[in-house]
Amino acid sequence: MQLSGCIEDGSKPHHGRNTTQLDPLTMDPNTAHRLLILSDDNRKVSQGITEQQYPDHPDRFDYWTQVLAQQGLTSRWLGVAYKGIGRKGVGNNCVMGYNRMSWSLHCSAHGYAAYYNIKSIAIPVPSSGSHRVAVYLDWEAGILSFYRVSSGRSLTHLYTFYTRFTEPLYPGFRVWDYGSSVTMCQLK
Q1: Domain extent listing, the chain
Q2: With contact defined as beta carbons under 8 Å apart, do 184 and 169 qualify?
Q3: B30.2/SPRY domain: from which residue to which, for each copy (predicted)?
Q4: Among 13, 57, 70, 122, which is most buried by a count of CB atoms within 10 Å?
Q5: pLDDT tens, the chain, 188 aa long
Q6: How far is CA 44 from CA 90, 99, 111, 157, 167, in A?
Q7: What is the biggest distance separating any 2 CA atoms in the chain, rounded to whole angstroms?
Q8: CA proximity to 8, closest of 159, 149, 179, 176
Q9: pTM over the 0.85 mark
């Protein structure tokens, strides 16, 4: 499955607030699991079948096929995590959405589920053909929302987390299957 994570247009209000346009996000090669292949511009990640020759780095995920963005967010933006999320081993402290350090949306051909602290919430919205998801973050208000984006760019609300964020959040992605990919794009 291919999925695009998008930042919403900064000129449109959301929840009664104006958002700001963000610079394009890029994935952090130092966090990428070795089975993940990053594009030259670090905006697309795909899962391969052989390990990449990435140098050793303490920030690298070593078991779960995940990657974080380089830029931390404290304003408006498929899963987000605090920089301190675990990176080594198979424990829940390393899986996005399975701990108190991260929030995630699982997307599949069968539908969607929201995850936080290993609790999942099935979302009764069928998966769409566009495979695009918009993520909205209002850090100060403690709002993290996920939307399905149709081919006509209309948004369908999937789920909203309400919490108190205590540090910048980093967009993160988990790529399950060989041939699957995620691309970060910016809505215009």
Answers
A1: 2-186
A2: no
A3: 1-188
A4: 70
A5: 444 444 333 323 333 333 333 467 899 999 999 999 999 999 999 999 999 999 999 999 999 999 999 988 765 457 899 999 999 999 999 999 999 999 999 887 778 899 999 999 999 887 766 678 888 999 999 999 999 888 777 889 999 999 999 999 999 988 877 878 888 876 55
A6: 24, 25, 22, 24, 25
A7: 47
A8: 149
A9: no
